[in-house]
Specification:
It is a single chain. The chain is of the alpha/beta class and about 475 residues long. The chain folds into 2 domains: about 325 residues; about 120 residues, 3-Layer(aba) Sandwich (Rossmann fold). The strands form 5 sheets. The protein has a 10-stranded mixed β-sheet with strand order 5-4-6-7-18-17-14-10-8-9, with helices on both faces. Helix 5 packs parallel to helix 8.
Amino acid sequence: MPLERTSTLTVNGISGVDGQYAVPKMSTADLAARLRRSRDSASISPLRTDRGRRLKTRAFPALPLGVRPEDVDRSGWTVVFHRDEDIAVRAALEPLITYRQERIEKRVAPLTYYPDDSVEGWLGNLGVGWGNIAPEKVPYYLLFVGAPSRIPYQFVQTLDAEYCVGLLDLPDAGAYQRYAQSVVDYEKAGAIENKKEIVYFGTRHPFDDATTLSADWLVAPLADGLPARPPSDAVRPVANEWSFAQRKFAGDEAHRDALKDVLAPADKRPPALLFTATHGMVWPNGHERQLPAQGALLCQDWSGFGNIATEHYLAAADVPDAASVSGVIAFLFACYGGGTPLEDRFAHEPGAAPPEIAPKPFAAALPGRLLTHPAGGALACIAHVERAWGYSISGQTMEPQIGPFRRALGRLMLGQPVGLAVQEFNDKCAVASVSLANLLEKAYAGRPVDDIQLTTTWTERNDAEGYVTLGDPAVRLRLELLKP
């Protein structure tokens, strides 16, 4: 369906207090004016724009010549611990560390993050710089372990501009041990229960612009493909491209019980991939529901603005012990689905300090529950830190702009590492950062810049920047063991 250029932006995320949008709708003119006044280009990482420019010359990633990025054994893997990480947590991850290092060509012992490290300083102390990945010093695949209050999200997301980074923040050593053992068991198994299947779950509330957009412009074209629009050929469903089966729960089918059935199938055979597109639940700073349920998935059961109840959304506590999620990679398109930072980095008033949105930054509880499930954990979750911006999938065109989603899912269906799949969004962020920096420079110079072009580029950049891998970035689907 065509999408008209709109003068209003609807921000994803529904308040758990009153069932309204967590951020009121805003006009593109107001947002563009804030961007012009705030000189937001200062927040655009030069590392992102550098990557964007290098992408145009096909000079990325910066691995040694002949080392393919999907080859973990040669591109390298290690864990990064905070300097003061609990010895019990380190011990809990030892089975995974040992298993990975047995296969790595150039082994690197666990690395250390020191408080207040800058990315450039951290890399420099290890003998490398940007644009020069040396797997024997800093491997391409890095699993950061620890709370974001100790290892900041911004540090990890900046490093993710060049490396495949995974985050793991779990409640205790026992949870880390369960996750590590689940990954090792999956990769050593002679047989697995997962189906060679992707399940799509996407809400569509007719009264809500955000889910109407994500349903029609993201879930539908991923699952159903796109018709031919000359000069472009028809686009096949992603699953058909890579010989996966698929199921789709969309609109009126996307109820909470349906999602619970996907996570706890009667035959104990979960899909290899789960893709959800919903609102994420949002609570005020310090609310008692913020830690256990921020980023929970709002389902079709929601009856409308002004009404909200726990039975409308799926939170960590709603995943039963009888669930079967071992071997699953989940992609959760939802606000705060991966985690919540300390501050709201986006669109605050110029000259004002960014408002705090949580007492401290924290990882979302739902992915943590999936990764550490007592019956065997999920392999990884791809999700957002901060908000998901649905308008980034429409861009400034009359057709869905979902290439990064198609390529990311395709990489997973080809059995490539999850961290490499997420690089598709880092590529988009890098290119959008170049475009945004150029637009803002024009605006600051007093040259005309279209409001919708500016705000659309801004939302595209922010949405792409927010994707993170929760779990080991080196995990991949075992295609040889997946069965219909």
